[in-house]
Design brief:
Layout lengths: L9 E4 L2 E9 L6 E4 L4 E5 L4 H16 L5 H17 L7 H5 L1
Parallel strand pairs: 2-4
Antiparallel strand pairs: 1-2, 3-4
Length: about 100
């Protein structure tokens, strides 16, 4: 069953307005943060857990563009792990099949 979820197309990160493009066809990444264009792109078809990881990762890039890739990845994984351990992530059908 396909969920019809209304998704915002803009968000505020820090004091800047960012555009979010959902369900993009990205080739080599799950997400992409373009600081100059203030745009975040998210790949289509990810399981919920991966989507949360990617959203956190790209938001951290947007908010703190000078952080290293390793620091961004570590912080995003830490927050995502906390959300998962707290039972706040709802697993979708794809995750339940694994």
């Amino acid at each position: 069953m396909e969920r019809n979820v209304r998704r915002r197309k803009t968000v505020y990160i820090g004091e800047a307005r960012w555009k979010v493009h959902w369900d993009c066809r990205l080739r080599d990444a799950d997400g992409l943060c373009d600081y100059n264009a203030r745009t975040i792109k998210l790949r289509r078809g990810m399981p919920v857990g991966d989507l949360v990881d990617t959203i956190l990762h790209e938001m951290i890039h947007a908010r703190w563009p000078d952080l290293s890739e390793d620091a961004v990845a570590d912080f995003a994984e830490t927050v995502s792990g906390f959300l998962d351990a707290s039972g706040l992530l709802i697993q979708d059908h794809h995750d339940q099949e694994d």
